[in-house]
């Protein structure tokens, strides 16, 4: 595994241990400001300039699963995890590849993505698009498609001083994210929590970004 991922994963494991032994968690820092529709960045601030956490995800096979018949549902535990982050006021975003031809702005491409997902959704509850707001980052050109660094760079710039987490199912993507200063977490691995525990995310927000 990439050395940057190993370092980030080791830090996450240490943080997880701290979270499990912590008896009380303080309030979460304020949410990140949204990104403008044209893909510009917005600065995130908090009252005391603390390192607020922001959690970005890949979409397919991280938060949702596409079945053989083309239907889409939440991955196990994903809906509950998003609810837990929402309850603590932790902002979330998506970094996902879609055709750049789907629109000229992030907002237009996100709208098309939502249409595509919702048209084949089979879950008992709809996907929680409202949690992500304008933090749905998609390639403006085919050259920006992951694993090119552009989308992560835009997410990092738009998160201001906040510590930024990235969760995905592939080693390659978490490796690139780690190399760009994200706290990486690879989902779907055996003998590990399905997602980075919410308590760990909160603790990350108490540490100044590297």
Automatic annotation (TrEMBL):
Keywords: Signal. The keyword Nucleotide-binding does not apply. SUPFAM superfamilies: HAD-like. InterPro entries: HAD-like_sf, HAD_sf. It comes from the Bacteria. Residues 1-24 form the signal peptide. This is Secreted protein. It comes from Streptomyces venezuelae.
